[in-house]
Amino acid sequence: HGVIGPRAVVVDDILDTGGTLVSACEALRAAGVQDIVVMITHGLFTGTGWQRLWALGVARIYTTDSTPLPQALVDAERITVLPVAPLLAEALGTLLLLAVVIGSRAIAERLSGGNMGLALLPNTLATVGGLYVLIEVFAPVSGAHFNPAVSLVMALRGELPGPLLPPYIAAQLV
Questions:
Q1: What pTM value is reported for the model?
Q2: Sheet arrangement for strand 7-15
Q3: What is the pLDDT of residues 73-86, one digit of tens each?
């Protein structure tokens, strides 16, 4: 059994009419939870049933921009929309960079006949070339950090909003 405290975070894949989340929040309130934060992947916000969440102690709803937010909710004070495209771009770019580095090393070792000094040159050239292409492709979407240290520096410089740092790092490490 988990410990029930005064605060809870509820994570769900979709908020359509809100029935499932309302039931979950009712159970949490009955268990003594006072403050609830809801995090969802796809916020459809169909109908008005989901609005009962506010009366059940939901302080904020976080959703992604995977689906357009209904126009009536665009300026809603307690609904925060998080962009998903930059995080997907970081995850995909990091994965592709890893493939370039590993692949270029394996090919360079084969071509060099086991001479590691000779293998270093094609490995480096392939990695630099691959990184250049990945930066050109992903920079407009995510900034093309591909590295938690780079994301940290960008956040410290104010070029990456602080609240996006943990999701960026998570996307890079997955």
A1: 0.62
A2: 7-15, 35-43, 58-64, 79-82
A3: 988 999 999 888 89
